[in-house]
Specification:
The protein is built from 2 helices and 23 strands. With 320 residues, the protein is mostly beta strands. This is Protein CBG20598.
């Protein structure tokens, strides 16, 4: 018969096993039944997880929020990945990031859905290139502030920028919005497009901008709108309840065989020392009860028409 000192209780066995596990590496190969965080129960061990402590600089030592299980995709650390690389899987873009570049290239999809916020602040660049889709849906906010650049360029072909379902697109504080090379910018279903504080809005190289269905387009106060080279400016479909206002000596220019259509009881307003340029066979369309507002800083506005266009002709065309 064995003496009591020869007997080892299950609790003692668990305690010894747990003590050994704490001093071992993260990828413990101990398949002990008593260890709940062994390789069998833990899917994020070193063998199954390629992003272990060796490859992942955010291991237990660097990550104070990691209780012992490696989580390379921990949302607590927002700057865990390099925004310049394509392998970055962290969608978080924090205001603490300064002078960072976010590039999405080579036929990739960026989708933001279900009441999410996309904020890019403090002089950052957002670039989307090479046949990519940018979709923002379901009551989301897209805000770009503090001298930032939003560029969709660099040999891009057949790209779609769609913002749908009661979303807000705001660009403020001396920012540039450029869409080039056969791209489509569509804003649908009760959305607001606001550009404020001396910003530039440029659409070039065979792009489409559509505004339709009871939307508001406001261009006020020292802004530049240029339409040139055999283009069509049409405001059709329920022209009764539409308002087109261009105030304080502003510039309206559309160049190179482009079409500007505003449909179904919409308002067209451009305000506050901004530039709206549409060039090279592009279409500007905004549809389905949306608001396009460019506001703030009502000073020094010029109204000019170019290439065999008269101010009266433009006003008549604008008035439908």
């Amino acid at each position: 018969m064995l003496s009591p000192e020869h007997l080892i209780s299950p609790a003692l066995m668990y305690g010894q096993n747990l003590g050994i596990y704490e001093f071992r590496s993260q990828g413990s190969r101990n398949p002990g039944i008593q260890n709940p965080e062994s390789r069998i129960q833990n899917p994020e061990s070193r063998i199954q997880n390629p992003e272990s402590r060796i490859q992942n600089p955010e291991s237990r030592i660097q990550n104070p929020e990691n209780p012992g299980i490696l989580k390379s995709r921990n949302p607590g650390i927002q700057q865990s990945c390099n925004p310049g690389t394509q392998e970055c899987r962290n969608p978080g873009i924090q205001e603490s990031m300064i002078h960072r570049n976010l590039r999405i290239s080579e036929s990739q999809n960026l989708r933001i859905s279900e009441s999410q916020n996309l904020r890019i602040s403090e002089s950052q660049n957002l670039r989307i290139s090479e046949s990519q889709n940018l979709r923002i849906s379901e009551s989301q906010n897209l805000r770009i502030s503090e001298s930032q650049n939003l560029r969709i360029s660099e040999s891009q072909k057949s790209q779609n920028l769609r913002i749908s379902k009661s979303q807000n697109l705001r660009i403020s504080e001396s920012q540039n919005l450029r869409i080039s090379e056969s791209q489509n910018l569509r804003i649908a279903e009760l959305q607001s497009l606001r550009i404020s504080k001396p910003q530039n809005f440029k659409i070039s190289d065979s792009q489409n901008l559509k505004i339709s269905k009871s939307q508001n387009l406001k261009i006020l106060e020292s802004l530049n709108l240029r339409i040139s080279e055999s283009r069509n400016l049409r405001i059709s479909e329920f022209p009764e309840s539409q308002n087109l206002k261009i105030s304080k000596s502003q510039n309206l220019k559309i160049s190179k065989s482009q079409n500007l259509k505003i449909l179904e009881s919409q308002n067209f307003r451009i305000t506050e020392s901004q530039n709206l340029r549409i060039s090279e066979t592009q279409n500007l369309r905004i549809s389905e009860s949306r608001n396009l507002r460019i506001s703030e800083f009502p000073e020094f506005q010029n109204f000019k028409s170019s290439e065999s266009q008269n101010r009266r002709t433009l006003i008549r065309t604008i008035g439908g």
